[in-house]
Amino acid sequence: MARILIVYESKYGQTEKISRFIADKMKARGHSVDLLEAHAKSTDLSHYRTIIVGGPVYANGYPRALSKWVKNHSGDLNIKPTAFFSVCLGVMQKDQTVQRSEARIVQGFFRKTNWLPKKWAIFAGALNYSRYGWFTKRIMHTIAKRSGTDTDWNRDYEYTDWKEVSQFTDDVLAIQNEEPMNMNLVF
Hints:
The protein is an alpha/beta fold. Helices cover 40% and strands 18% of the residues. Strands 2-1-3-4-5 form a five-stranded parallel sheet, with helices on both faces. A two-stranded antiparallel ribbon has the order 6-7. Strand 3 (50-56), helix 2 and strand 4 form a beta-alpha-beta unit. It starts with a strand and ends in a 12-residue tail after the last helix.
């Protein structure tokens, strides 16, 4: 079975939770999986058959540590089976303009980091009001109101569709059996 690396950055915990879910599912299928926070010390990627990267969207972008990690490792990432997942509440809005905007954020991340994974997905995250400071709580409340979701600040809400995450995991396991890529990216 394959050795797989999942690199993530998680500000309020949902991206980490999704990363652990993916890791557990892969481990249950006999794979060796390591988890690495993007801001942690770097690792040698040559030991891994497949690499998955995950990050949350905040203020129309991804955490700096995640962007830096991907950019620093884009050469290795572009020759292996790789996947990316984005965690964002905006994906819950049914407005096509918002959906396109979310896809543009992901594509912009790929251009900025010079990386093009074989598979990518956007998952709804969570509203962890109990973890937010005053300002963030108000911003998230506004986003939740726009998307027609829960706005009670006295509790947390989880919107991740675990069936979608499970399907993504299956898709990633399928791409890892394909031949490694040798890509020259032009954006």
